[in-house]
Structure formats: C-alpha cells, structure tokens
Amino acid sequence: MADLTIGALARAGGVGVETIRYYQRRGLLPEPARPAGPGLGGGVRRYGSGDVRRLRFIRSAQTAGFTLEEIGELLTLDASNERARAQDLARARILALDARIAELTEAREALARLADACASGGAGPCPIISAFQP
Amino acid sequence: MADLTIGALARAGGVGVETIRYYQRRGLLPEPARPAGPGLGGGVRRYGSGDVRRLRFIRSAQTAGFTLEEIGELLTLDASNERARAQDLARARILALDARIAELTEAREALARLADACASGGAGPCPIISAFQP
DNA sequence: ATTGCCTCCGTACCATGGTACGGACCCCAT
DNA sequence: ATGGGGTCCGTACCATGGTACGGAGGCAAT
Predict the structure, then answer these.
(1) In a domain, A5, yes or no
(2) Which end of chain B is more exposed for a tag (fewer CB within 10 A), N or C?
(3) Which of these three, B39, B65, B91, is where a domain ends?
(4) What is the mean pLDDT of residues B86-109?
(5) Residue A42 pLDDT more than 60?
(6) In contact, B16 and B10? CB cutoff 8 Å
C-alpha cells in the first residue's frame, strides 16, 4: 500500500485532484476514512495501490465508451458474483465498439479522399462536403 | 431543389427540427430568406437538396470527431480556396482518428478477455478491473 | 513559529450538443 | 371560416464530465 495523498493518487492516474473528488462524489472511488487526527475536521485521506488500479480502470473503461454510470455498475459487479450481467455489459459494449470502429474507419477513408483531392493540383476549392457523401 | 420545409429537412437528415434551428444559430446551416408573405413576420423557410447535403455532411463530420466549431470551418473552407488549411485539418483528424481507433481496438480486446474470463466457469466474481489492466 | 504547499469542503461554473416550452402565426383541407 | 398541424422565435433547461473558487485548516521544513 503506497500511502498516497489525493494529489499523488491524481498524478498516478493522470487526472486532476478535482476529478478524484468528483469520482468520490459519484461513488466510483471510496472516500477513505480519515485518521481522526487532533484537528476537529480530522486528518488527511490516504490511498493505496488498489485505489490506483481502480482509478486506472475507470479511465480505461471510459475510453471503451462506458459512461461513468455504467462504470459504477462494473465496479459493483467486480465484487459480486453476477457473471451473467457482467458478460451482458461486456458483449453489448463490444458490439457498440465494433460499430464505432467501423464508423471511424469509414470517416478515415472519407478524410483520406479529401486530403488526396486537396493535394492533387487544380485550382479552386477542394470539395470538402462531397468528400463525405457516400 | 426539393422545396422542403424545416420538418422535412430534419427528417431527411435524421435529426430533429430543433437541431436544425440550433445549427442555424451556430451558423452551420443558412437561414434561408423567407418569402415576404403577407404576414408581418414573413412566411415559412424553404430548403433544397443542397441543404440536405450540407446537413448530412455535418452529421458525417461529427462521427469523424470534428466539433461543430471545426465543422463550421470546414464548411467555410469548402467554398474557399484554402487548400492547405483544408489538408491540415484533414490530416490532423486522420491522425487523431488512427489513435482513437487503436484505443478502441485495445478496449475491445480487454472486453473480449473479460467476456471470456466471465464465461469460463468457476465460481466467484470475474475480475472486471483486472481485465483492463495492461 | 512562519512560510509555503497540500488538503478539505461546498457550491458554482464551464463546454458541448442538443432538447423543451409556450405563445403567435401560417397554410391547407374540409 | 374553422381546425389541425407545422413553423417561428426567444429563452430556458438538460446531461455529461468535469473544472474553478474561496476560505479554513493541516503538515513539514527552515
């Protein structure tokens, strides 16, 4: 356990401190009990390597297109035995991902056509709108 | 020229009427001059096939990851002769698209691993978080 | 013990891309 | 000429995912 402060955790996950606090409010990261220090409000929260893993998972799942709400469910599921539900979520997202990848690939082709048409000489504007028409 | 109403244009582009009006406010679609009818406020706007093309372009460019602001620039560029700028935009977006496609492909693999681990028997939870750790 | 950085907390604000609302007005068919 | 549906317009609101702010207090080094 690395005994990190919130700032160190944020750095480890490549996010800002405010983002950590936001995730805590959303229930995605635990709000660790603060050691009841001498001060009235208590001391400073400490985080461990489990929190770093969890934070990194959140970021990865986001790039996979899960919403924070879905990610919350995944995190709950991770500790539960509901394999069926987890598989459903994964499979649904794989389908969405395949569709999205196809879309992006198509868009890439359109852009390549555009860059091409723009590059090959000739005066006048290159037909940007047309480059995207199927 | 198809002489469409705003509602027909919206249907042709697969968006809502409010979206059309929003794009007009953003300057992405022209606000056609309304024939000065007898009423004080003027008549109803009419749209043609060029508007449909333009609208469809906007949607395609969005799936390519352009923001509406960038799309606005593309639309201006389409009529101008600034080939260099158009190429820059296209090339930058191609790079971003390639990166994004790679990311999504990786995420897809992680999800496939997850679904797999979840499917192959064994009691207890499937390790969702671990499935995403590189 | 003073300086300087960090943390804590609530609340407010932001950008993006829409979506909804309500009242007036218009057009077309019956 | 009356009704119903479409249009027009400004303005308000929404969801998502943060980001900023300000003031109070903590922590460690000098």
Answers:
(1) yes
(2) C
(3) B65
(4) 96
(5) no
(6) yes
- Is B78 in contact with A105 (Cβ distance < 8 A)? no
The C-alpha atoms of residue B54 and residue B56 are separated, in whole angstroms, by 5
Distances in Å between the Cα of B50 and the Cα atoms of A111, B12, B38, B59 are 21, 12, 27, 14
Residues A31 and B103 sit within 8 Å (Cβ to Cβ):
no
Closest in A77, A104, A119 to B128, CB measured: A77
CA angle A68, B93, B50 (to 5 degrees): 100
- Return d(Cα B28, Cα B75) in angstroms, integer: 7
- Indicate the pTM of the whole model: 0.90
Question: How far apart are the C-alpha atoms of A60 and A71, rounded to whole Å?
Answer: 10
Task: Inform me whether the C-beta atom of residue B92 falls under 8 Å from chain A C-beta atoms.
Answer: no
Question: What value of ipTM does the predicted structure carry?
Answer: 0.89
Domain match, A53 and A16 both: yes
Nearest CA in chain B to A91: B115
Q: Which residues pair with B4 in a beta bridge?
A: B47
Q: Same domain for A25 and A55?
A: yes
- Contact in structure between B6 and B17 (CB atoms under 8 Å): yes
Residue A118: band (very low, low, confident or very high) from pLDDT cuts 50, 70, 90: confident
B29 touches chain A (CB under 8 A): no
Structure tokens at B103: 């990311």
Three-point CA angle A75, A77, A79, nearest 5°: 85
